[in-house]
User: What shape does this take?
Amino acid sequence: QVRLEESGGGVVHAGGSLRLSCTASGFVFSGYAMSWYRQRPGQKRELVAGLRRADGEIEYGDAVKGRFTIDRDDAQNTVYLEMKALKSDDTAVYYCHAWNYGPLIYWGQGTQVTVSE
Assistant: This one.
């Protein structure tokens, strides 16, 4: 059974930091591109950061460049999102996403991040 389990969300003051984790099971983690998406209130889901290939090709959404860092540990089947200098606009549900470069896509259930002023 495929699972993507996010953790690390919560409430933080503006300017603070959080680290999200997503632990995968049920598929060959190393063969998948791993990404984080978010959905802000009233908006569409958007890409936050993606590790597209095992050699480390990375893409960041414009809104988070320079503040967020994505990383993965294939030995732990885990992808991380380090978030710094958080703003109220970063308030969203953050989702873990796995893609096998083909037809298979998996989503986690999401973790809420709330940034208060």
User: Anything to note?
Assistant: The CA atoms of residues 93 and 114 lie 8 Å apart. The longest strand covers residues 18-25.
